[in-house]
Amino acid sequence: MALIHIDILTPKQALFFDEVAKGLEASGHEILATTRRYREAEDLLKLRRREATTVGEYGGATLKGKLEASLKRTLDLARLLEGKKPDVSLSFSSPEAARASFGLGIPHIIINDSPHSEAVARLTVPLSRRLLTPYIIPLRLWLRLGATREMIVRYKALDPIVWLRDYKVDPKVLNQLNLSPEKPIVTLRMEETYAAYLLTSTKGSQTLRVVEGLTAELKGKAQIVVIPRYEDQAPMLKERFGGEITLAEKTIDGPSLLAFTSVFIGAGGTMTAEAALLGVPSFSCYPGEPTIVERFLVREGLVQRQTRPEVMVKKVTRVLRDLDRYRKIGKARAARLISRMEDPVEKIKKTVAEYLPSPTKR
Predict the structure, then answer these.
(1) CA 342, CA 154: separation in Å to the nearest integer?
(2) Which end of the chain has the least Cβ crowding within 10 Å, N or C?
(3) Which class for 318: exposed (0-12), middle (13-18), buried (19 or more C-beta within 10 A)?
(4) How far is it, in rounded angstroms, from Cα 29 to Cα 17?
(5) Cα angle vertex 158, ends 248, 166, to 5°?
(6) pLDDT one-digit tens code per residue, 120-176
């Protein structure tokens, strides 16, 4: 039995790595999970009943804050790993896990579908033994960010399939948000405005302007659910829209909510991909250049990209008027795409096994 460290920093990673951990545990390995003080990630780990040691905190909205938090967390994480002595470390390009593992001689393996997050990639790819990535990401992008061809392992899937393939919908999410299944639900996810790759490019919130347009246009004809990304967004949304929207202030079962959602509007991130793979009519108002994953989903006809809020509102209204047809099309397209995907967890398990000591050396 090997001890495998997994560093979990975001809500997506909580969902993704919980499934990876289950696969590794089924193979007889022990998991040392770590996270940081970041509400959504910690809450999701609790919902998934995945124990994790909290090390450090999220750096916030400034580059200086991110740097200071990362430096302190690297030192604290290194102390933990030195004491626990894991055989392998896994992360979704965690700079702290990469640096601490490299410094202690622990093989570090990263999973990453986001070459647009260049700073994070440059801090992690060169310090890692393997990079696992979806097949749609061009190799040249990883080579430019410090990878070698030999270290790259590709899997034919998008990341959300890891937790969506066998997902069981929990209808309790409707009661938690006081929603009716008999009335259309429009769900919006606020954009990642604090990410390092958007700090200098984002001007205002596209999602906020879409919410304004929808509340004016729909006037109670649909239930509008807004999921904040950061704690400071919730008071602003509550003050601005009051009872016109349903605000998901606490961390919820996102995939279950999406299963009941009529139309989803995101910013090209994980929930956009989740909704698309569930066959939900989906839109993206991502404020920067579209990511590779978003472009792929647009080509597959599973996501519509629209950065003009007034046009977005008209398109959402059009979908709601003919919802059954749009959902039927979305479900069929999603099913065809999923049928072509493999299980990334198996690729990850196989890659991890390359770096585990033989039984005679343990």
Answers:
(1) 11
(2) C
(3) exposed
(4) 14
(5) 70
(6) 999 999 999 999 999 999 999 999 999 999 999 999 999 999 999 989 999 999 999
200 C-beta neighbours (distance < 10 Å), count: 7
The domain 3-157+342-361: what is its CATH number? 3.40.50.2000
> Which residue, chain included where needed, has tokens 């990642």?
192
Name the phi and psi angles at 275, rounded to 5. Answer: -60, -45
In angstroms, how far is CA 137 from the centroid of its own chain? 16
Contacts for 144 with CB less than 8 Å, ≥ 6 apart: none
Tell me what pLDDT residue 286 has. Answer: 82
Domain 172-339 has CATH 3.40.190.10: no
Cα–Cα nearest to 90, from 1, 2, 8:
8
Strands 53-57 and 3-7: unpaired
The yes-or-no answer to whether 3-157+342-361 and 172-339 have a common fold is yes
Angle between helices 39-47 and 11-26 (to 10 degrees): 40
> Which class for 76: exposed (0-12), middle (13-18), buried (19 or more C-beta within 10 A)?
middle
Q: What element of type H or E holds 186?
A: strand 185-189
Q: Is 359 exposed, middle or buried (0-12, 13-18, 19+ CB in 10 A)?
A: exposed
Cα distances (angstroms) measured from residue 316 to each of 246, 283, 329: 18, 8, 15
Query: Domains of the chain: which residue ranges?
Result: 3-157+342-361, 172-339
Give the Å distances, CA to CA, from 307 to 66, 202, 268, 271. 28, 12, 11, 17
Q: Which residue has the tokens 């989803």?
A: 264
Q: What is the mean pLDDT of residues 104-125?
A: 97
Dist. CA 325–CA 345, nearest whole Å: 34
Longest dimension (CA), the chain: 69
